[in-house]
Design brief:
By secondary structure, this protein is mostly helical. About 55% of the residues lie in helices and about 0% in strands. The chain contains 16 helices and 2 strands.
Length: about 300
C-alpha cells in the first residue's frame, strides 16, 4: 500500500486497502501520525503557559467527552443498555467522536468483539495474551484493528448518519480543535484579563484534555484486567478498581460489568462511584433516554458475589 493511501485514511477510513497477512498485526506508523502528533503537541504547554479559563475548558471537555464515551459509545452503542431517539444518539455519537477514539460503529464493534473473546487469544487487547502496552494502546494502532467488525454491528449499520460519521469521524475533532483556537483568539481580543489566546486554548482544551481522555479510557482495557479486586468469577481477568472508576466516571467497576454487560449501572454497591449512571438517570428523568437496564439489585449483586 502506498504512503498516499495511508495519508488518505487520516480523513476517510473508508479508503479500500489490502494488506499482506504478515503485516496486519504491525503498527501502521504512517496512519497513526495524527495520534502521535496529539501527544507531541502537549509539549507546547511549555511555551503557551496556562490560565484558569484554559484549564477549566480542558477539564470540562474531558468530562463531557468522557461521558459521551462511557455513557453512549459504551453503555448505549456497544451494549444497548437503554433506549433513546435517533437524534439523541447522533448528537452523543458526534460528541463521542470528538474524543478522537474513532466513530461509534468502529468502537462498538471492537468492544463487542472483546466481550465475546475476553482474554482469549482472539482478544486484541488482553494483557494476559498481548502484554500491557498492546492492551493499553498498541492493538488499535495495527492494521488489523483499523476496520470495524461490521458483522457485530448490523443494528448500527441501519443508520446512514452513523455510517457517514464513522467513516469521517476525524472531521469532528478537527472542527473542535479549530473552534478552540478561534475561541482563544476571540477571548484574547475581547477579554484580555482572562490571559488566554488561541494556541493556549488549543493546547489545553484539545491536546492535553484529549491525551488525558485517551489514557484514562485505555486503562480500562489494560489495568482493568490487571489490578483491583474480583467480586465475580468471570471467565476473563476483569477487575474492579476505584481509581479507574474515578478517572473514567464509573468504568472501573470492570468485573461487575463483565458479569452484567447489558446493565446500564456498573457500580453495584452504594459506595461504588458511577457518575455515568447518575447522569444517565438525569437524562432519563428528562425523557431524553428511557428503559434503563439497571441490572441486579444491591441485594442480588451481594448474593451473586457470594455465590461466584
Amino acid at each position: 500500500m502506498t504512503t498516499l493511501t495511508r495519508v488518505r485514511q487520516w480523513i476517510d477510513s473508508g479508503v479500500e486497502v489490502e494488506d499482506e497477512d504478515a503485516a496486519v498485526d504491525r503498527v501502521d506508523w504512517v496512519r497513526i501520525v495524527p495520534f502521535l502528533a496529539i501527544h507531541a503537541s502537549c509539549l507546547l504547554v511549555l511555551w503557551v503557559g496556562w490560565s484558569p479559563i484554559a484549564v477549566t475548558v480542558a477539564v470540562s471537555l474531558y468530562l463531557a467527552r468522557m461521558f459521551a464515551v462511557t455513557g453512549f459509545y459504551h453503555r448505549y452503542f456497544s451494549h444497548r443498555s437503554f433506549k433513546t431517539s435517533r437524534l439523541t444518539q447522533l448528537c452523543f455519537a458526534v460528541l463521542g467522536a470528538s474524543a478522537c477514539q474513532r466513530g461509534p460503529i468502529w468502537w462498538a464493534s471492537w468492544h463487542r468483539h472483546h466481550h465475546t473473546t475476553a482474554d482469549s487469544e482472539a482478544d486484541l487487547h488482553s494483557p494476559r495474551q498481548k502484554g500491557f502496552w498492546t492492551a493499553h494502546c498498541g492493538w488499535f494502532l495495527t492494521r488489523r484493528a483499523f476496520r470495524p467488525q461490521t458483522s457485530r454491528v448490523s443494528d448500527m449499520l441501519a443508520h446512514p448518519e452513523l455510517v457517514v460519521l464513522d467513516r469521517f469521524a476525524v472531521v469532528v475533532p478537527i472542527v473542535l480543535g479549530v473552534t478552540l483556537f478561534g475561541l482563544g483568539a476571540l477571548l484574547e481580543a475581547t477579554a484580555p484579563g482572562l490571559a488566554t489566546d488561541g494556541p493556549q486554548m488549543f493546547v489545553w482544551g484539545f491536546s492535553i484534555s484529549t491525551v488525558a481522555l485517551f489514557h484514562a479510557t485505555f486503562c480500562v482495557n489494560s489495568l482493568g484486567h490487571l489490578i483491583g479486586s474480583r467480586r465475580f468469577d468471570t471467565r476473563d481477568d476483569s477487575k474492579n478498581s476505584w481509581l479507574i472508576a474515578l478517572i473514567t466516571l464509573g468504568e472501573g467497576w470492570h468485573n461487575n460489568h463483565h458479569r452484567h454487560p447489558s446493565a446500564t449501572r456498573a457500580g453495584l454497591r452504594w459506595w461504588e462511584l458511577d457518575p455515568t449512571y447518575r447522569m444517565l438517570q438525569v437524562l432519563a428523568a428528562l425523557g431524553v433516554i428511557w428503559d434503563l437496564n439497571a441490572g441486579p439489585s444491591r441485594r442480588e449483586s451481594r448474593a451473586l458475589g457470594r455465590a461466584a
